[in-house]
Specification:
Blueprint lengths: L2 H30 L3 H8 L21 H27 L7 H28 L20 E3 L2 E3 L10 H20 L8 H24 L9 H6 L6
Helix pairs in contact: 3-4, 3-5, 4-5, 4-6
Length: 237
């Protein structure tokens, strides 16, 4: 057999093998991986045939233990910044006779602001999506604390993060506590204790809660919120 004939035999053999492989692959694909549309067409008109599910069910959300543990740890660290941190820091900046007064102010504010935050502060800051003020969604810790449903414990999860709403409330509450304690340094030794209490209640209610809602609660300054896009060029950076 001449060299030219041998080359023709090799070329024809390769073409035959290629076509055979392509046909086998097409039969395998059509037989094993039917599409949802073809299955629906085949089932159409068949009595009792159930249509295939279009999408899989969304997985149930669960608490991320790592995120939850870190948020609780961060909350504890911020609390330690208030007392003994700020209490001792401001106590060292005043006269000896006023050290106990400054420490007492920081301790008292920890308790006072915690009660306000639990009663209505968290709801005014993070309830709803209004542009200026929160609503009554979380008033008196409604929808925040764990409860029993059908005899089983139920822990409300945050809408965005895989942590309980209670953990988010605790973390944000630490800043509601430490901010008035920081303000104490501005009027140390120059304000009566009762006057300080009234001022902090009014300041926390009328200043901190609305501003927290504007920036972190989906309000007018929240980054990417509809209100920020409309009024404030996208929100605060």
């Amino acid at each position: 057999m001449s060299n030219q004939a041998r080359w023709w035999v090799i070329i024809l053999t390769g073409v035959l093998l290629e076509s055979t492989s392509a046909n086998a692959q097409g039969q395998h694909t059509s037989g094993v991986l039917p599409t949802a549309e073809s299955a629906a067409v085949e089932n159409e008109g068949t009595p009792g045939a159930a249509a295939p599910a279009a999408t899989a069910a969304a997985p149930e959300r669960t608490i991320d233990r790592g995120d939850n543990a870190w948020m609780l740890t961060s909350s504890a660290l911020v609390l330690f910044m208030t007392c003994p941190g700020l209490a001792l820091f401001y106590g060292g900046l005043v006269r000896k006779k006023n050290v106990l007064s400054v420490i007492m102010q920081c301790l008292f504010l920890m308790g006072l602001m915690t009660v306000i935050w639990a009663l209505y502060g968290y709801s005014l800051s993070f309830g709803g999506t209004d542009a200026l003020f929160g609503n009554k969604d979380f008033l008196l810790m409604n929808g925040v604390q764990a409860e029993l449903r059908d005899g089983k414990p139920y822990v409300p999860l945050h809408a965005t993060y895989n942590i309980p709403v209670l953990t988010h409330m605790l973390f944000q509450g630490m800043f509601f506590i430490i901010t008035p304690a920081l303000i104490c340094g501005a009027f140390a030794e120059r304000m009566k204790f009762s006057t300080m209490v009234v001022f902090m209640i009014l300041w926390g209610t009328l200043v901190y809660c609305p501003l927290a809602h504007w920036v972190w609660g989906g309000g007018i300054l929240a980054y990417g919120s509809p209100h920020a896009v409309k009024y404030c060029a996208g929100g605060a950076l």
